[in-house]
Amino acid sequence: MGSSRAFWLKQLHQWHWISSALCLVGMLLFAITGFTLNHAGQIEAQAATVHRTAQLPAALLKAVSGDDQRKGVALPAAVADWVGATLDIDVAGRTGDWSSDEIYLSMPRPGGDAWLSIDRETGKVETERTSRGVIAYLNDLHKGRHAGPAWGWFIDVFALACVIFSITGLLLLKMHAAQRGATWPLVAFGLVLPLVLALIFIH
Question: Is residue 52 within 8 Å of residue 127, measured between CB atoms?
């Protein structure tokens, strides 16, 4: 019996510290941004907007001219390269909506927004980039907003590590509860408090 308990204690401690190491920085980030999101009304974001214009060369205008309408179509590679070099915006592979008179690319990102418009007749290019600051950037990462698939995978792995951390912590509490009388009252309080607040104050 004693050897079995020692085995499980060792296993639980190992999984607990490994999962805690994996999710430590993520838990700090999500805890801090949970606070900033909860007080978003009191934390004002100062938006900075940059608007730029350029003229598409005649040789490239031919690649986008016309009056056909398409949705979810990327810019030709040569046009995307020119936009990147001229306006310092990476649009390679990004899809946009092609109407009879313009091509419009929406490029939202964490903590900001951006768009690009190309007049299909004149070749006039307009772009606007807005940044709402570091706090808005971190808040959007918390929500996974416009952060891309790689960040989505990170959140999934982070969530799994948190689940392992919590379950192993609960099992360790169970194994040590006999020596720590406040264990289950504290666990029950942690369960009941948010439940009571939700039932009474959230309508």
Answer: yes
